[in-house]
Each structure stands twice: as C-alpha cells, then as structure tokens.
Amino acid sequence: MHVDESDGTDAELLERLASGDQRAMAVVFDRHAPAVTRYAWAIAPSRMDVEEIVQDTFLTVWRKAAEIMIAEASLLPWLLVTCRNFGMNAVRKAARARAEQFDDDAPQGGADVVREHHDAEAARDDLRWVLDEIERLEPIDRQVCELCLVEGLPYAEAAERLDLSVGAVKQRVSRSRARLKKAVTLDEV
User: Fold this and answer.
1) For residues 102 and 160, what is the distance between their CA atoms, to the nearest angstrom?
2) Is the dihedral of CA 84, 87, 91, 92 positive or negative?
3) pLDDT tens, 94-142?
4) Which residue numbers delimit the RNA polymerase sigma factor 70 region 4 type domain (predicted)?
5) Which helix (H) or strand (E) covers residue 136, if one does?
6) Average pLDDT over residues 39-66
7) How far apart are CA 40 and CA 48, in angstroms?
8) Which residues make Cβ contacts (< 8 Å) with residue 72, sequence separation at least 6?
9) What is the SS3 assignment for 62-129?
10) Measured between alpha carbons, how far is 164 from 177 in angstroms, rounded to an integer?
C-alpha cells in the first residue's frame, strides 16, 4: 500500500479527526491498519479477538483525537500502544474465562492457564522490548525498520518513501537486525 502524502501528515490528520472529519479517519485507517493488525495478531489470545482489538484501537483514536499528542510525525506508535493495551485486556479476559471453565477436580488445567498466560506475557514483553530497541535507532534506521519490519513494506517501496536506494534500505535493515540480535544476546547473558 502506498500512502498518498496529499492526504496530509499524521499530525494534520489528527487535527482533522479532532474536528470530526470522517475522511481523515478513513485515511488514518488505510495508512495504519495493516501494521496495527499485524501487531494485534502477535498479541491477541485468539483469531476472533484480532478484529475486535483493531476496531477498538481505531475507535479510540476517533474518540480521543483532540487529546492525543504525538511525538515526531507518526501516529503509529500511539496506535500500537493502544492496540497493545486492548490486546492485554483480551488476554486477561480469555485467561479468566478459561480459569472459570475448570472445576476444582482439575488442578492441572489451572496450571495450564497460568503457563499460557505467562507465555503470552513473555511474548508481549519481548515484542515491547524489540519496539523499544527500534526507538533507540538513528532516525533514518528507525524509519526503515518501522516501514519494512513493522509495517511490512517491500524494500523498494520503503526506499521510494525515504528517497533511498533499495540497497541502502537492505543494508540498514540488515545492520539494524544485527544490532537487535546483538542486544538480545547481551541481554540473555
């Protein structure tokens, strides 16, 4: 998907959202729904929850547009944090529902729920850690990672958006991946 810059920056769209501009909401959705949806898939307790998490995320941006302050030019970090919060709520709700299904004669089932919840929490912590590491990258490397790794854009499209060569984008992604891998290795020691 190619974002039409004539639709405005995220900051401009946010201002239009605050005044109730439905066209701005459609542009924000088209621009960021793929990344938010991929993120929701990473944290949702079930497939059925993904759609609800994404809808709740964009409904929240619509309702709170006047209150939202974004750092830099992208609304995506705010959307991902909001998505994560809805995802965590869904995980807790699912864990409670599973725990209620087990009767007192099945102590092993309760242990499975705790283990699944712990595994989901650990996966979310890992994803949060990776996003924090991406934030520490140089601005151009961070933009390349957000476009290629978070949003899933092809290298050629990211190169076009950032006015870089495809080779430069590949090199920056490779270097950033190596840095993230090194940070993970140091963190595990």
Assistant:
1) 54
2) positive
3) 878 777 766 444 555 555 556 665 566 655 655 666 667 777 788 888 8
4) 128-180
5) none
6) 89
7) 11
8) none
9) HHHCCCCCCCCCCCHHHHHHHHHHHHHHHHHHHHHHHHHHCCCCCHHHHHHHHHHHHHHHHHHHHHHH
10) 18
Q: Is 68 left (phi over 0), alpha (psi -120 to 50) or beta?
A: beta
For residue 46, give the H/E element and its range: none
Structure tokens at 65: 């547009």
Residue environment code for 56-81, b if the CB has 16+ CB neighbours within 10 A, otherwise e: bbbebbbeebeebeeeeebbbbbbbe
Residue 117 contacts residue 95 (beta carbons within 8 Å): yes
- pLDDT by residue (tens digit) across 144-158? 877 877 777 788 988
SS3 45: coil
**How many residues are listed for the chain in this entry?**
189
DSSP secondary structure string, 48-60?
HHHHHHHHHHHHH
d(CA 12, CA 5): 11
Q: Is the pTM of this model over 0.85?
A: no
> Rounded distance, CA 152 to CA 146, Å?
8
6 DSSP assignment: G
